[in-house]
Amino acid sequence: MEHKTQEPVINQVSDLPLDQAKWITLKRIDYTDQIGKERTWEVATRKTRGKAGVDAVAMGNILLHPSRPASTMLVIQYRPPLDAYTVEWPAGLIDAEETAEEAAVREFKEETGYDCRVLSVSPVQAADPGMTNANMQLAMVEVRLEEGDEEPEQRLEDGEHIQRVVVPLAEFYDRLVEYSKQQRTIVAAKLFHFAAGMQFAQTQKYF
User: Fold this and answer.
1) 81 with 109: CB under 8 angstroms?
2) DSSP string, the chain
3) What is the mean pLDDT of residues 182-207?
4) How many CB atoms lie within 10 A of CB 179?
5) Listed range (85-89, 139-143, 194-198, 203-207) with the worst mean pLDDT
6) Residue 87 and residue 176 in contact, taking contact as beta carbons nearer than 8 Å
């Protein structure tokens, strides 16, 4: 992996003609609502959706070590649309011929360097339904470590610069809150929602 030599800088933001867009496009939906009124909606769609009909998979993960507390691995990477670093779980697009489970194992290996075992795969979920038809699934995966294991090399693609951070599950929510206070850093919503749900279940007494 190439070493960081500077902070990323946005040089220009300009309109992109649709015929030049490689990954996404815009569409207009004409529809009739629940009371019979005709309406329109603007939507962004991916061009990369494969046969499975699902765009992406995120890997919620548990790292198990003989002498350390159960932890999870977060990834931090610069996201140009936000001009900020995002704190996320590893994730990636599902290739045309892949299942979500296959993509989870491949992407986790690429972004973290670790082999994982898939524990479960969620139903298909909406990613940002007010703006896009993009969807995804959540794969929960497990990594079993041994004493003396060294951190493996990532298999990143050109342009990917991903920092790995291991966080004990007992500190999960609090660490995300701390990250959210850092300058030019944003915690991904889905990750924070998961951690907040864990925190809520542990601290409230509704069930």
Assistant:
1) no
2) -PPP-S-----------GGG-SSEEEEEEEEE-TTS-EEEEEEEEES---TTS--EEEEEEEEEETTEEEEEEEEEEEETTTTEEEEE--EEEPPTT--HHHHHHHHHHHHHS---EEEEEPPPEES-TTTB--EEEEEEEEEE--TTPPPPPP-PPTT---EEEEEEGGGHHHHHHHHHTSTTEEE-HHHHHHHHHHHHHHH----
3) 95
4) 20
5) 203-207
6) yes
Spatial contact of 137 and 100, defined as CB atoms under 8 Å apart = yes
The overall pTM is greater than 0.85:
yes
Place of tokens 């990750």: 191
Radius of gyration of the chain (CA): 19
Tokens of 14: 């300009």
DSSP string across 127-166 = S-TTTB--EEEEEEEEEE--TTPPPPPP-PPTT---EEEE
CB 90 within 8 A of CB 58: yes
Examine the pLDDT at 81 and tell me if it is beyond 80.
yes
Residue 23 in tokens: 């990954």
Give dist(CA 5, CA 68) in Å, integer. 33
Angle at 98 between CA 95 and CA 103, to 5 degrees: 75
Mean pLDDT throughout 69-92?
97
> Nearest CA to 56 among 107, 119, 18?
107
Q: Looking at the predicted structure, is the pLDDT value of residue 2 above 80? A: no
